[in-house]
Amino acid sequence: MKKAFFQIVVGLTFLATSVFAEEFKCTGQEKGINTMTGAERTIPIFYHIEINNNNATIDGIDNINFTVTEDDDTYILKASIGKSRLLGEYDLQIDKHTGFFKGKSWLFSRDNIVTKEGKCEKCEDNEKPNK
């Protein structure tokens, strides 16, 4: 009886723990506003996102680790630069069903509006870069 109970507890622990690993290639656009002139411009962006065990890294955004939460429909990546919001914060949401992403960055827009949008595709095993 004790052995069976132990196996059930261990099995439920693994089921309750959210462990996942995903990689995405994302392309889109980012809006930027020149604070001196007020002119708005759009630039293309390319991301390679790796999600492992509720943490994520994005190639091109160095030294920032993202915390990942997920629900049935989206992966939500959040990060703060520094210990306070004054240095900036970053939010990126990837839709699991369509692959579309949208992001906000307080550093680039004080109104915290959507500043980046695009589409992500999951990397297959043969597409993953060698490190």
Your description of this structure?
By secondary structure, the protein is mainly β. The chain has a domain at 24-109. Helix content is 11%, strand content 53%. It is globular, with a radius of gyration of 18 Å. The protein starts with a helix and ends in a 9-residue tail after the last strand. The model is unreliable at 12-19 (pLDDT under 50). Keywords: Signal. Residues 1-21 form the signal peptide. This is C-type lysozyme inhibitor domain-containing protein. It comes from uncultured Desulfobacterium sp.
Question: Can you summarize this structure?
Answer:
Helices cover 11% and strands 53% of the residues. The protein is mainly β.
Descriptors:
eight-stranded antiparallel beta barrel; mainly beta; about 55% strand; about 10% helix
